[in-house]
Write a structure and sequence with these properties.
Number of strands: 21
Structural class: alpha+beta
Strand content: 15-25%
Shape: globular
Radius of gyration: 30 Å
Largest sheet: 9 strands, antiparallel
Helix content: 25-40%
Number of helices: 18
Oligomer: single chain
């Protein structure tokens, strides 16, 4: 028996088929977690080609005799009985599911995957392995994905089931049928037709995924209470679970290192630019001796207790910040320290290792300047830090973390590319490289090094690794007091002038023919051309610039996909995220019923036809009688 669950036609970009189909299938086989969020990942065996006899032996080992179960073998052949076709070959592999939460006890859930390239079909045969060593093939949950070619280069992909009436679903190893047809199938079509490939490696490529999954759940349960007591202004769920994931990565990495090197003592660490210190707190609690250093103390530091060693100190690359007795240096979103961390690790000792998670783009002596337009800025910067690491003598490894952040790529230096006896020559390479970056960034270079004069190894070491701050001269640590630079601190009349100019330009792009005018749209680049260079420079000095200012004024503007629009508050689709449906309407009414309107309605005061909403429906004040004045004074632009 064979039943079609669902099918989709390819509407465009079918030129990528059938190769794109197999690429999409490989994503589903190797990375099911990208679409099924209940799975942490899979372990996969290498694919190999098998004939009928070997395939029969594999199925027999898992509880099914093809000589007695022709419906299974007929299903694998697409409904055609060819069980004695000894020349027919299948590509076979097996994957083991690793759920985020262990819902199966001691039972291990696997899938035999059979690829039939001749007929463009792939079959999934779920297997349960028991602790006593026996295995059972679940014939009720066998399914198949099939690519079909039609007339005029029309392609269709379909999912077929062997026994749909007996299908069992748990959403993990056994997907639900509506999910297979409504979620997986559209994803496969999209993956098959898009040509872009990731610039980075798969997530957690340096770790055993099952060990990571288990430890992450344990740490998440252990430290989730931090979300409720988080005293910082940052989002607690993002920062707590992100640091839990980073800590999990390091703990598993270090556990693997101890097993490989037969070590019994847990690794020591120093977190440079530790920020809120939660990563230091978790690693210390899990038995690793270490400390965190940051230029500015956070409020949450006092909550950790004396066992978490945190220092409020400005870090400068120098002999005063070398760590010869430390096993690992950590740079977790370490900003201006990021390129220095491989250098500091290399100079601390031959055995010092590092982990860095780059975020903001810094060179040794200032902001990183782009040089390659063919790469994304992020990829170019990761390559730069990798170049720094390699120049410092590390065998550099790259991996991608599973954290709630767009900046997820980490670099790891666990070993050196030279012997310890070659330290002098390695140091010369580091020194010359840093000097070249110093020249590129425009920092001042002193002494004979600036003139390009050569030195012997000993003299060069003495120059570069002299006491104090000499080898980091020109480095600018961040200010101890954090400066707020997001355009919110600019004078109000300065902001209002820009908002009015941009809004009037957008309104002038469409004709006012009686209806409320929502205006046209412009790219952010063209909006910038409306402003004077002096104004743009003021905005450039505020992190984010013009686009940040426009997004801050979300009452007036909507910025999506690089385009600036006038916000139309009548449209349900443009409500703030999360306010959808009946629940959203109730929440919106509760806000407006007793709301204190502390800001005037821009549209009521400035739009040619006023606000599109009635005063009772608008979240902003329509006139002075509707306004509760803000407690914050309005800043005025100082006279120059």
């Amino acid at each position: 028996m064979m039943s079609k669950l669902s099918e989709l036609k390819f509407t465009d970009n079918s030129s990528s088929l059938p190769g794109g189909f197999w690429s999409a299938i490989d994503v589903w086989i190797k990375k099911p977690h990208v679409v099924n969020k209940r799975i942490c990942g899979v372990k996969e065996t290498e694919c190999r080609n098998v004939g009928f006899e070997e395939l029969g032996n594999i199925l027999l080992a898992h509880g099914i005799d093809v000589s007695e179960s022709n419906d299974v073998f007929s299903f694998l052949n697409g409904g055609v009985e060819r069980k004695h076709d000894k020349e027919r070959l299948w590509s076979i592999c097996m994957r083991t599911f690793i759920p985020k939460v262990n819902c199966y006890g001691t039972i291990v859930h696997k899938e035999i995957i059979l690829k039939d390239f001749d007929s463009q079909r792939v079959s999934f045969l779920p297997v349960e392995e028991f602790v006593e060593g026996t295995a059972s093939l679940r014939t009720n949950n066998i399914y198949q994905i099939h690519l079909l070619a039609g007339d005029n280069d029309e392609w269709t992909v379909a999912i077929h089931l062997l026994r749909p009436n007996d299908w069992f679903s748990d959403g993990v190893a056994y997907p639900k049928l509506p999910w297979l047809g409504g979620e997986l199938l559209p994803k496969l079509v999209r993956w098959a037709t898009e040509s872009k490939t990731s610039e980075f490696r798969s997530t957690l490529s340096l770790l055993p995924i099952e060990k990571y999954s288990l430890m992450y759940q344990q740490l998440k349960d252990k430290y989730k209470k931090m979300v409720k007591v988080w005293p910082e202004v940052t989002d607690p769920e993002k920062f707590v679970y992100e640091d839990v994931a980073i800590a999990t990565y390091l703990l598993v990495l270090w556990d693997e290192e101890r097993a490989e090197k037969d070590l019994t003592v847990k690794q020591s660490f120093v977190d440079l630019g530790c920020g809120n210190g939660l990563l230091v707190h978790i690693l210390s609690n899990e038995g690793h001796p270490g400390k965190g250093i940051d230029v500015r103390k956070r409020k949450i530091w006092d909550m950790y207790g004396p066992e978490t060693n945190l220092e409020e100190t400005a870090i400068t690359p120098s002999d005063g910040f070398l760590f010869p007795r430390t096993d690992w240096l950590i740079g977790n979103h370490s900003d201006e320290l990021t390129p220095w961390i491989p250098v500091i690790a290399a100079r601390s000792s031959f055995f010092c290792q590092y982990f860095v998670l780059p975020c903001c783009f810094f060179d040794f002596y200032g902001k990183y300047q782009r040089r390659q337009c063919r790469k994304s800025q992020y990829k170019e910067y990761i390559d730069f830090i990798s170049e720094v690491s390699t120049t410092c003598g590390f065998n550099t490894e790259e991996d991608c973390l599973r954290i709630p952040s767009t900046k997820r790529v980490c670099l790891v230096g666990r070993s050196r590319s030279y012997q310890e006896s070659g330290e002098l020559l390695a140091e010369e390479c580091r020194a010359k490289y840093i000097q070249s970056r110093q020249t590129c960034s425009g920092a001042t270079v002193h002494g004979s090094e600036a003139k390009g004069e050569s030195k012997c190894h000993h003299d060069l070491l003495e120059t570069v690794r002299s006491h104090g701050n000499d080898w980091g001269e020109g480095f600018q640590p961040r200010e101890r007091v954090e400066t707020v630079r997001n355009c919110a601190s600019l004078p109000r009349d300065f902001i209002d002038g820009i908002v009015l100019r941009v809004a009037n330009t957008l309104l002038g792009l469409t004709k006012d023919e009686g209806a409320w005018n929502a205006g046209g749209s412009l790219p952010v680049r063209e909006v910038a051309e409306l402003l004077e260079p002096e104004t743009l420079q003021v905005l450039k000095n505020e992190c984010g610039g013009l686009q940040t200012l426009l997004k801050n004024n979300h009452q007036v503007f909507r910025v999506e996909g690089g385009m600036v629009h006038i916000r139309d508050w009548r449209e349900r689709a443009q409500r703030p995220r999360g306010l959808q449906g009946v629940r959203a309407d109730a929440k919106r009414r509760s806000v407006l019923t007793g709301a204190l309107k502390t800001r005037p309605c821009w549209f009521h005061a400035q739009h040619p036809r006023g606000c599109p909403l009635q005063a009772g429906e608008c979240a902003f004040a329509h006139g002075a009688d509707d306004l509760k004045p803000s407690a914050r004074p309005i800043k005025k632009m100082k006279n120059s």
